[in-house]
Amino acid sequence: MKPVRYEINDQQIALREQRNEQDTDFLIRAKTSEAVDCLHQLRAFFDRDKVYSDILFYSRGERTWQVIVRRDAYVPFLAHLFQLQLLRSIRWLTG
After folding, report:
1. Which of 9, 17, 20, 39 is at a distance of 20 to 30 A from 88, taking alpha carbons?
2. CA angle, corner 84, sides to 26 and 58, nearest 5?
3. What is the mean pLDDT of the chain?
4. Residue 87 CB neighbours (<10 A)
């Protein structure tokens, strides 16, 4: 997978990413009610897909979620954050 860079919509969310061997761990904090709604939509979208273990959501309270994303679901996850306007941009780095 080519490296990906993205810009967070920092008016809506705060996001921290940590890559592990098999997956990526995101900690996402919603700054607005609109962002909370978007994160609920994000979770509902991935809950409806056929692969139940690709993305796991854990509520941490205070408008904060931990999201564990399998490596093969990383780009679809970012694309959906972008679609919901929680990211401002996504770009692939060329080499």
Report:
1. 20
2. 30
3. 93
4. 19
